[in-house]
Amino acid sequence: MTFNAGAGPNNIVSSIALLPDGSVLIGGYFTQVSGVPRGGLAKLSSSGVLDPLFPSGAGISGTGLPSIDAIGLLPDGRVLVGGEFTQVHGLSRSRMARLLSTGEVDVTFDPGYGAGSNVRCMAVQSDGKVVVGGSFSTFDGVVRHMLARLNTDGSVDTNFRCSLASASACSPWPCFRMVTRLQAESSLN
Question: Quick one: which of 46, 100, 122, 130 has the fewest CB in 10 Å?
Fold first, then answer.
């Protein structure tokens, strides 16, 4: 099978997730894929063809150059996205949102004020909670230096705290090279 995304995105792709059916989600700084408006998120078939129905809505918006820099997949088909944005499909979602399998915003996941700055990476745990990393110092107004865990409803998990010696030691930069082990007691090794 060949993969041909046509003209492709008009700007940087910064995150990719492979779906169980072989299709691919891409996130980034783009506003179009193959000439079709797609605000930072698009779904391609296993052969590279743009899905005309996903995502439903206007995509992401915000100040500067909005982006989706992290994608997390949940077993039920829902999708977590993080990055530099203030709205998803016109709904206020500061740098973190959960989407239904159709691409619509899942309003049952509410991160409140969200991250104080960019969300750059995430890891979905088996219990549905998500650990997010980025350049933030707060998440929903709670002090969380560059690393936070969210409950399944989007609220900050106050039982999870970075126990390393300094906040800078918790930095996920660069996220794609960081290897951590989350233990049952929520500590990082």
Answer: 46
